[in-house]
Amino acid sequence: MKKHILFFLLHLYTFSVYPQLFFNEVSSSFDFNHSYFQGISGAGLSFADFNNDGLDDISIPTNGEKSIFFFKNDGTKLISQNFNISYPYQVKQILWIDYDNDNDKDLYLTSFNGKNKLFENDGFFYFNDVTSLLNLPDSLSNSFGSSWADINNDGYIDLLQTYRTSDTLSNTIKIFLSDSALSFHEITSTTNISELSKLPFCASFVDIDNNNLLDLYIANDKSSGNSMYYNNGNLSFNNISESSNTGVDMDAMSVTIGDFNNDQYFDIYSTNLEEGNKFFVNNKDLTFTENAQNLGVSFNGQAWGSQFEDFDLDGYEDLYVSGALVGSDNPSSAFYSNIFGKYFEENNSVGLGIDTVESYSNAIGDIDNNGIPDIAVLNMFPHRSFIFKNTYSGNNNWLKLNIKGLSSNKDAYGARLVLYSGDLVLTRAKFSTEGYLSQNSDNIFFGLGENNSIDSLFIYWPSGAKDRLYDLGVNEIISINEGSTSEKPIIYSNKLSLCDGETMFLETGFYEKYLWSNGDTTQKIEISSPGQYYVSVYDQLNNISTSDTIYISNVSPPQFTLNVKNITADHSSSIEVIGLDTLNNYYVSLDNGPFIRNNLFIPNISSGSHQITVRDINGCESSQLFEIINIVKNENNPDFNNKSIARKWIEVLLEAIRNDLARPPIHARNLFHLSSIMYDALVIDKKVNQNIEISPFLLNNTINEESFVFDFPQPNNDQEYIDKVISYSAYNFIRHRFKNSVGIVETYKMIDSLMVSLDYDINYNKLDYLSGDPKSIGNYLAELYIDYGFVDNSNEINDYSSNYYKPINPPLDLSKNGNPDIIDPNRWQPLKILNFIDQSGNLIEGIPEFISPEWGNVLPFALSEEDLVLKVRDDDIYKVYHDPGAPPLLDTIGQGELDSLFKSSFSMVSIWGSHLDKDDGILWDISPNSIGNLESYPENILEFHSLYDYFNGGDVSTGFDINPFTNQKYEEQIVPRGDYTRVLAEFWADGPDSETPPGHWFVILNEVNDDNNLVKRFEGEGEELSDLEWDIKSYFLLGGAMHDVAISAWGIKGYYDYPRPISVIRYLSEKGQSSYPDSINYNPNGIKLIDNYIETVGPQDPLLGDNNENLGKIKLYTWKGFTDNSVSEKEEKGSGWILAEQWWPYQRPSFVTPPFAGYVSGHSTYSRAASVILEKITGSKFFPGGIGEFEISKNDFLVFENGPSVDMKLQWATYKDAADQCSLSRIWGGIHPYIDDIPGRKIGTEIGFDAFEYGKSLFEEINMITKSYENNLNNLKVYPNPITANNFMTIVNETDKNIIKISLINFLGKTVFDQNVNIDSKKNRLNINKLPHGIYLLRIMFSDDTMKTTKIVISR
């Protein structure tokens, strides 16, 4: 009968309580926007109060741009904090601990691939790395969990650190004992803790038998066996894993401690990656019983984090588990309600069902400080992390405690609390870490059921002290210091000085009555005067006891003055704090922001009123108001005010590229993404404020299963709406993309300065874009594109490194002659150069790797599947768009026609090197009168040579008869050929300032846009566009084309892996000559001899050598390079005979050749595609006014030689002429043979046209498109359009032709729907179910091979 009554009561309890407990996901309302990017086995988080203001803050790793986010809780929002903590590693655990007992939180971080670090908080959130200073390990290691606890109860917390190692003889646990926080020393070997061949994740110190000594439990992965160690009290432990029944083999992830059945003994829950979690119930005799299955908490999924907490306040701790499986059909998370300490029931009705994403850790805190525990969950990208606010609405009561040690460690780790309330006996303890690598609130939560009073509370401190408190109130938040019930009262205060004009609090323990020396009669008093203070307390019998006297001193706040600089055209704003004693440390805060030590100079302050606050080492503060005036915006400054916001940010990006490593495909992607951001900003502005709908690029599209959702907000009449959207998105985007740049300091200064000049707040970080605030929209747009960058297959998360490409050839050592070690002369070869400096002037350590050989994998702009072929080499797959076919190869056996072409093409590079001498007496007209106007390129590879003048240089173009704009002949410009060729080689190498080729064409575009002859009509037709719309659309089209070129050209480079002239010329020459079998130094794989250019060294030759050692070697008549050590680097080298084994391209000795394969030429491909874009957007093949020019000053342009010897202008009549000139420059520069050139020009042409047509299709107004095509598409009707997802689309064919095929292509060029249709059918109904919302191109193929296309919009 009793059993049935209990069953009835339990179920009655279940039905009555569940509806009262519910969690709301509130991350957005708290401005908490976080994801953890893929790292090894996730990470933990901290929900602890790091600034001691009584509110639980959140510290959480990202494995992204910033390794950690610190969010300060102000009660309604989580505000990101910037601490002076540099931690460039993959964070695993974040623990706020007070290791030195100075009443402020220090920070300990662990990393799997970096260094574990201890940062000391100096009291004002300025952090010092004290790892080495305190004798803790400061080297790279593979670590996961740590645990801080006072294992010898001396009042200072000690450290346990776990490690991962392949050394089976190495202990994976280390114990570091604190020496009064002055240092640590390792005592592992004497503790008897030995974890050999183990794989630990987490470890927790827990007192399993209530003897006030902390024992140890360790969760070990891969069935290496969990471990339990019993504390003997003398700094040694006994391994009781087997006898305690806790040493099970499992894939253990975490350790969670609780007293689920209220028997005053702690139980242990350990999550398991497979086969169910384990729950070890304490038998009170140093043994445990594993009972997860029977208690209903086995989970049976990929479990990681777990936490015990009494969420429904009934007096029994519930359990929450997070897992890594995704989807509602998998056990991805679980909430277990504790049923009177008897068993658990999984409860799916409390609002946690949305946790169906990949989660690792979770932590407990009180986000709104209402005394009821909440949950934070770390989720993997692309999912956002959760904050689950507990909205319990029942009648149960609670108590929330914050305890602080005195003789014990300040954190009170190891303290045990036992609370008595009615029939409840509740036991809790304080731990530094709980669950999976996480840290809970410093507060301790008690649920009291419906009990409305607390009989007593006992606190057992690690020091051995014991406090007893009686008749506490319920539903209160109480702070308790160690010794609060001691016979002699203690005065508690964090400091002993009082600043002028300020107040401070003094408090004592819990007694019947109080009488302070100043007459106050409360437990806690507020004082405003220095002096002596003591307190007398009385018990129930009116016995009196008096504390010791403390002295509170007076301190004057710091005095200072300010030097203020306004925002001008010459400099950004700044303030300087002066007049302080520089021998002391001061902490400076701007506008109530974080205090930064000795930050006495602050640049880039926005205009308006501000406050500076200076704090001294005593915590005393003084503040001053000041004002910054933006003179730039308010004065006539054409360089600033006459440029569109898009132009301003593109120029900043170009400068950031110049300050970065020279990586053309990566920067093409950066230019494209920023251009796309600005284009999508234009889409938003048109839709929101002009009610004009054009197709976005990224917004509301789905890529790699990631949806980039954007719901258009309501109109906003902000006059700077689009400027703000673009600026905030560009600012955050550039900060992200260049966070690891070698020029990060200069780049960050630039973008900060621009934002300040625009009067925009660089600290504004809200993402609530639906509010309509353009600043928030910009921030959100940047987040979308940052997320997009992690799913576009560029491997950005690993700094764009290669996944499988490996060079087959060993490096060519350029400190030596020849090329003796090359294995395959048909494949690319790395270069070994002492002090290699890239095109942008950055020193690169070691041997430069091939830049982006797998770039064909990156998602394109307009490249389509029809352009793509999959290639396999060395068992690796390469994506190749616009495959040009194999280049000619050196045939070491047959020496056929293509072998001859291979040699001839590379030999021409050496021959053209002879043109780099201004004193050779050859003068050229370099104006459009004589150069340019190529009509076509040869089709057959055997005819490529016909485009070039093999011996004299240049191509077969003949120039133009007249300038079509002026109807006048172009003025001749006669210059030395050697000046012209050298200028070309340097000008086109990286652009005038090394912004790499794609950036160089953006510079040219800006020059075109500035030309007064340009009328900004798209395609030369229609209404003239505003500067902003013109800039955005032209950048978007050019950026898309440059991005597609990078994907195509580098996909080709990666697959064909073709060599550079530096490798081939030296290799062929070292083999010998292949022209005369009966002559000296003959080798069929050698170079072909050419009179006056490629010959052998004869007996009387000046190159013979002192001992005739060079007799018969190959010599070249070419640029002399750096063969003569007596010639200084800046001195002109000229042309002459050199040994071929010493041949050098026309490049700096610290650079030589770009670190990637040659075929096809990136410059040729970029330039031709860019020229097509410029032709199409302007509607003319000619530069504005019929000529484009770039002035070159005499002796003020060349970098590694003097020159040129005359002033000159680089001139082009057409955009194509400029592109063709760029292609030739790479031959003169010694970088490419002509075999690399022409395929690049052809591919660039196709890419340019395709990119333009695709981009143009996005510009068309959607309502006009749908109306036009629905009503009349040459008697072809498509409806509905837009169409709702999971619906049907109908195509009615009223033409006289038959439809044979219907396709849908997404915005990445991928065919997502392809269907052959009944040739006689005039009406086709298509099921587009499961297609994500977005913009698609509908392609209709007819039986006569004609085609119609239109845009289809699938809406949600």
Question: TL;DR?
Answer:
With 1356 residues, the chain is an alpha+beta fold.
Describe the model:
By secondary structure, this protein is α+β, with helices and mostly antiparallel strands. Helices cover 20% and strands 26% of the residues. It has 19 helices and 72 strands. The strands form 23 sheets. The protein has a five-stranded mixed sheet, with helices on one face. Strands 1-27-26-25 form a four-stranded antiparallel sheet, with no helix packed on it. α6 (645-658) runs antiparallel to α13. The radius of gyration is 37 Å and the shape is elongated. Mean pLDDT is 91; it is low at 1-18 and 1264-1273.
Range of strand content: 25-35%
The largest pleated sheet is described as:
5 strands, mixed
Q: Mean pLDDT across all residues, rounded?
A: 91
Class from helix and strand fractions: alpha+beta
Shape: elongated
Termini separation: 58 Å
Integer-rounded radius of gyration: 37 Å
Spans where pLDDT lies below 50 across 5 or more residues: 1-18, 1264-1273
Count up the helices.
Answer: 19
What's the total number of strands? 72
Read across the widest sheet, the strand sequence of neighbours is 66-72-71-68-69
**DSSP helix fraction:** 10-25%
